Amino acid sequence: MIIRQPFSRRQFVGSVAAAVGALSLRPETGVLAQGQTAQFTGSDADYDNFIKLASNENNWGPPDSVMQAMNHAWKYANRYGYPDGNVVQVIADHHGVRRENILLTAGSGEGLNVMATTYLGPGKKVLGVSPSYASVFQQAANVKGDAIQLPLDKEYRQDIGAMIETANRYARDIGFVYMCNPNNPTGVVVTAREIKDLLDNIPKDLPVLIDEAYHHYVDDPAYGTAIPYVLEGRPVVVARTFSKIAALAAMRIGYSVAPAQMIRDMRVYASNSVNVLAKWGAVASLKDTAAQADVKAKTLSMRNNTTKALQSWGYATIPSQANFFMVSLGDRTVQPVIEEFRKRGILVGRPFPPLLNHLRVSVGRPEDMEKFLQAFKEIFPQRTAG
Description:
By secondary structure, the chain is of the alpha/beta class. The protein contains 15 helices and twelve strands.
């Protein structure tokens, strides 16, 4: 079954009204777009006292190598045209592409918005799934475009067959295809074979944006990055971020990898606003592969241990390949549960329609997850695993 959902501003705001009310942190404006995190308005001490399992952050923080690089860059804080660690070339070398294949952005989120601004507009639609990371769909509304959102299948997977069928049926109307892989909020991957099937069976000139924000946490051998398709010259854009594995969420740095002409088209709409500390931190992060491997190992261990404990308590989880997971709440809905955790000093998830009986939980440090499990068992009675 195909769901065609126009995405007007009014409809978008209405669809997230319940989510806004459930947020643990208050938005400064009163309206918060899906995919955004509300700004905390309390004191530093209040913020620091919360356990933060709501926004898929790296709870271990930047490694020493990254902190040292950013501290080194403070001496350029008063300069324009400063040395930036040759960040674009370092990223290009990391992926085996040229500088002209890289667009540096303020987090991968800016890359998604730039893609939507470049390829959408009145009469044009982005094809994706629901639920998924909603930034692209919001930006589609902002530029007076629409969205075609397909439901996930019964295993919470993105239905590649339905996506291919829809892309061909509505080819004239679709500006590009969007896929978050692993998907947020489910953590489920699209396999390398499925990506190939998609690209081989949709119109050859139809752009595809693949958001690989959580790429570094995947250990499923069936998964593969889509960057090789950029090297083939296909109209594929891969978005990456330093917000997750590199723990630079607040520094706002990411990038897109794409064919040179697509990068030139997108660059018109980019802000060129990444700061000097973020650039030097990103360079250090790419070089410190041991630190990334350490974070991945710790995160996956805590994720797997926590989901096993929840399942033993009688609550199913969606198999995740990211630094978060979703747990089924049975017949309870997410919004009041978020507040129950907040009362216990823990920030978790937000509603992701239509999975309103599932709670997304980011993976934290061992002491964080111990307190999360304790709170979960206070809120939910043990039941027979099924």
